[in-house]
Amino acid sequence: MGRSWVVSILYSPRLASPNTMRTLPLWLKLSFTLWMMIWVPAIFLERGAENFLWFCDVANFLLLVAVWAESSLLISSQAVGVLLIQLCWAFDFFVRCVAGFHPLGATAYMFDPTRPIYLRGLSLFHLVVPVLLVWLLVRLGYHRRGWVLQVGIAWLVLPMSYLLTNPERNINWLWRPFGIEQVWVSPGLYFWVCMLAYPVILYLPSHFLLRRWARRSKRVRLVG
Fold first, then answer.
1. Is 123 helix (H, G, I), strand (E, B) or coil?
2. Is the pLDDT of residue 8 over 60?
3. Fewer beta carbons under 10 A from the terminal one: N or C of the chain?
4. From CA 222, how far away is CA 213, in angstroms rounded?
């Protein structure tokens, strides 16, 4: 009966580049696949499966699908979801390297000598993914409904993070925002705050900025 509905969605002309279905180089697809083949087992063995529920880790899996499917919708959703987070990570990392302190506290683990150096090295993908996302948006365009898809993804990932992970891991900062102990409301209420805060504080502003960039840029198409 032809392709499955999943394949049909991923390869829909409305989700991919309007000009061609083959705009990403094969070397990129193979390189990203090889990276995932190294990164996934290494993280799983050291940190366990729950670590993959971090939004930045979820983005890696979705980007793997996106680069092979050449889906502007998936790429746009991850740009909305993690581009700002990744840039904040990079800012915190570089300030620590230059000035010796963490303005956000997001990368303290990168300078923890008790953690294996190879594991910390694997976390440097946070510096590469923002560049990759911007380049992919230039190639495939920014999809108007990317933020809607990302809200749906977040509303799946956040409950899983809350129910299935150890609170001490603070996955997606559901217990300690920016590493600061949360004592103002109950953990259950704070979870619902996060369910609303991610879309309103992070995804919508990112969407408006990326859409504005696409409308004004001569290199980025606004699609969808």
1. coil
2. no
3. N
4. 9
| Residue 115 neighbours by CB under 8 Å, 6+ apart | 109
pLDDT-derived band at 185 (thresholds 50, 70, 90) equals: confident
Task: Report the alpha-carbon distance of residue 64 to residue 5 in Å, rounded.
Answer: 19
> CB within 8 A of 51, min separation 6: which ones?
43, 44, 57, 169, 171
Scan for tokens 């050291």, then name that residue.
Answer: 46
Contact 86, 134 (CB under 8 A): no
Decide which of 155 and 179 is more confident.
Answer: 155
Cα Dmax for the chain: 60
Q: Report the distance separating Cα 152 and Cα 132, nearest Å.
A: 23
**83 CB-side CA count, 13 A:** 24
Taking the CB of residue 187, how many other CB atoms lie within 10 A of it?
A: 11
3-state secondary structure of 142: strand
**pLDDT, mean over the chain:** 89
Cα angle vertex 171, ends 166, 175, to 5°?
80
From the number of C-beta atoms within 10 Å of its C-beta (0-12, 13-18, 19+), residue 6 rates as: exposed
Residue 196 token pair: 């609303």
C-alpha span between 203 and 48 (Å, rounded): 28
Handedness of CA 27, 29, 32, 35 (dihedral sign): negative
- Spatial distance between the Cα atoms of 62 and 56, rounded to a whole number of angstroms: 10
| Nearest-angstrom CA–CA distance, 224 and 220 | 13
What band does 180 get if pLDDT is binned at 50, 70 and 90?
Answer: confident
